Amino acid sequence: MQAFSSDGVRINFIDIPARNGDGRPVLLIHGFASNHAVNWVNTMWTTTLGRAGYRVIALDNRGHGQSEKLYDPAAYTTANMAEDARRLLDHLDIERAAVIGYSMGARNTARLTVLHPERVAAAVLGGLGIHLVDGDGLPTAIAEAMEASSLEDLTDPNQRMFRAFAQQTGSDLRALAACIRGSRGGALTRAEVAAIAMPVLVAVGSRDPIAGSGEALAALLPHGRFLEIPGRDHNLAVGDKAHKQGVLAFFSEVYPAA
Asked: How far is CA 185 from CA 37, 66, 131, in A?
C-alpha cells in the first residue's frame, strides 16, 4: 500500500494501473467497519474493473484498515471523509474520476459530488437508497455495540451483526465508535440531490432494509438510474456478480474505459 497526508491524517490506498495501459481512473470508497481489501479486493472488484480497462484506486477510510485511527467523533464528518477522497485525487494528479461507494462509502461519495462536482465524472451509490436524504446514517446503537465488553453481551441482531463484522475485519472498535457518532447527520437535502448533474447509478440489494428505496433515490437524481441486486441483503450485495455487471454496463455508456 501507499500512503499520503490528508490535511495531517494518514490515509493508505492502493493504485492499480489498467492491464492494457493508461485506463480512466475509478476511485473506490468502502463501507463502515470494512476496508479496501474486504470491500473491493476480496470481492474481485479491483480485478473486474482492471480487466475492463480501468485504473483502480481504493483507499482505507480514516479510522479503518491501515489508515490513521482517530478517536474524536468530530474527525469523522461525512465532509471530512469526502475531502480525504478529493485530496487523494489531488495527490495522484487526477482531475476527474468515476467514484464507486458502498454504504457509508456511498454517503461519502454523494457528499463528494456536492462539494466537488467537477472532480466526479460519474458515481455509483451502492447499498444506499432514499436513506441518503431521510436518514442520518447508522444509529448510535452501533457505536454502543463497538464499545460493549464483548459480542456475547449484545442481543440486538443489528448490533451483533456490525460488531461481529468489525471483529472479523480486525477493526479498531474505539475508532469505529467515534466514526459512527461523528458521521451522523450527513444526509443530503432533496435540493442537493436534485443538483447532482453527473450520471449516478443507485445499486441496492432486493433484501436490503438498511439502504432504503433505491428507486426513490434514483428518481430524485437528474441523471439517476436504479440497479436492483436480486436476492441480496446489505452485506452480500456489494460483491454480487449482478452488481459488477450493472456497473460495467453503466460505465460503458457514461464513462468508457477508452
From this structure: 27, 26, 11
β-bridge partners, 29: 59, 101
Q: For residue 177, what are the contacts with CB-CB under 8 A and spacing of at least 6?
A: 143, 144, 146, 147
For the chain, 258 residues long, give each residue's pLDDT as a single digit of tens: 999 999 999 999 999 998 877 799 999 999 999 999 999 999 999 999 999 999 999 999 999 999 999 999 999 999 999 999 999 999 999 999 999 999 999 999 999 999 999 999 999 999 999 999 998 878 899 999 999 999 999 999 999 999 999 999 999 999 999 999 999 888 999 999 999 999 999 999 999 999 999 999 999 999 999 999 999 999 999 999 999 999 999 999 999 998
pTM listed for this prediction: 0.96
* Helix 78-91, helix 104-115: angle, nearest 10: 70
- Please, are residues 188 and 110 in contact by the beta-carbon 8 Å criterion? yes
- C-alpha grid cell for residue 155? 442481543
Burial letters 29-45, b for 16+ CB under 10 A, else e:
bbbbbbbbbbbbbebeb
Please state, in angstroms and rounded to a whole number, the distance separating the CA atoms of residues 5 and 145.
30
**Exposure class string for 122-161: b at 16+ Cβ within 10 A, else e:** bbbbbbbbbbbbebebbeeebbbbbeeeeeeebeeeebbb
CA–CA separation, 188 vs 14, rounded Å? 29
Angle at 170 between CA 32 and CA 31, to 5 degrees: 15
Find all residues with CB under 8 Å of 249, minimum gap 6, and list them. Answer: none
What secondary structure letter does DSSP report for 41?
I
